[in-house]
Amino acid sequence: MLKIKLSVLDQSPIHDDKEDKSALFDTLSLSKHCESLGYYRYWCAEHHDTLGYASASPEIMINSVANVTSTIRVGSGGVMLNHYSSFKVAETFNTLSALHNNRIDLGIGRASGANFLAARALHNAHTNSYSQKAYELINYLDDNVPKEDYYHGVNLSPKGVKSTPVYLLGSSESSSVLAGELGAGFCLALFIGTHDRPIEILEDYKKNFKKSKNFDKPKAMLAVACICANSKEQAQYIASTHTYWKVQAFRHTKRDGLQSPEKVKELYNELSFDDKQYYNETLNSMIVGTAKECKKEIENLAKEYAVEEVMIVNVTYSFEDRKKSYELLANEFNLKNN
Hints:
Layout: E1 5-10, H1 22-37, E2 41-44, H2 58-68, E3 73-76, E4 79-80, H3 86-99, E5 104-109, H4 116-122, H5 130-142, E6 166-170, H6 173-182, E7 185-189, H7 200-208, E8 220-228, H8 232-252, H9 261-269, H10 273-285, E9 287-289, H11 291-305, E10 309-313, H12 319-333
Parallel strand pairs: 1-2, 1-10, 2-3, 3-5, 4-5, 5-6, 6-7, 7-8, 8-9, 8-10
Helix pairs in contact: 1-2, 1-12, 3-5, 6-7, 8-9, 8-10, 11-12
């Protein structure tokens, strides 16, 4: 039987119509809960000027989560590297690794995680491509800047810290091939969009993988949207919040706050035929059901994509529903005893 590690990707959604900053404290509460349940990693996402989500600084949330936990690995899912200097990101995560006994992961992505205006506000003077920045970032962390490079000889502070492992997050072969060539880990994002993500994406990653300081062999993971409840109907009801948010965000570029399932019931009737189709496609792209049903689907995906770790993304209106979903899934997988 395939033994699967389960991990968490937290987008810090704003629950229960509370003030925005409450979502940051919910993240801390959830991280402690998930550690006690046996989850392996806890990654914090990056969103800018996005209604419904509160975390714009994963590096700050990582430090906070690591401070309230003791065993679970903590990281970013991910830092949107195009906005920043690779050296600054390397120094930040080197510091986090020093503070937290090398319990830190650095997940990076090429998306903006922002609306147009916020993306412009974040723009920095560095014009290097994402691929070049990722290459530089890993070299800084590994203390392996080539001799011919202009920045050869520059050191991260503090010195003497083990290299932080880097993971690329993406949903296409361009990211997976780059991850392989860099000797980085790779997380295939199945929770973004409804388009097909063939297994060849991970096969290309493994085919192009080159051994590196942190990885002797390829390390591939999946990230999936999953909501568990006591019945499939209840899980679909809870999932309606995130599903409707995605319809507005991806069909109309409207990023509103998270609506309650009761409100979504009304709003669904106002959607156009095409929007309703997209709503149903989006719901069908999630793993939604009882813990037993979700476990079976996760195991099938892990087998299909040949991975041993799956990250769970779970966005709900109610914080208690979210906590319960992670709990049901952990108990079904018997994570505490794995």
